[in-house]
Structures are given as C-alpha cells and as structure tokens.
C-alpha cells in the first residue's frame, strides 16, 4: 500500500477535522481515505464522503490492536 498525507498541520492538537491520509494500492489505484480525528478513526472506502465513512472510537481501535 501507498499512504499519502493529504493535509498536514504541524505541532497542533488533532481536533474534529483531523488529519486525512489518502491510501493507494501498489499499482497506484485509489483505495480510500483514512481520517484521524479527536474521537477516533474514520475509514472512507473509495470516494465515500467523511460523514458516511466507517467510524471507530479510540477505545475500539485500542481494543482491536491489543487483542
């Protein structure tokens, strides 16, 4: 996978708008966007808008990673 940061502001707290990562496969095909926001993570497969993405809280994410 190739992951690009679409927007990045340095030395600031992650808030509701968050940081957007653009994700591509190794052939350069766009797979989706990953948002890191204050409430957790949002995965938007393909061209899905942020508000329609799959939301995961920080607690859910940490549980997945620790198990």
TrEMBL record:
It comes from Halomonas dongshanensis. This is Phage protein.
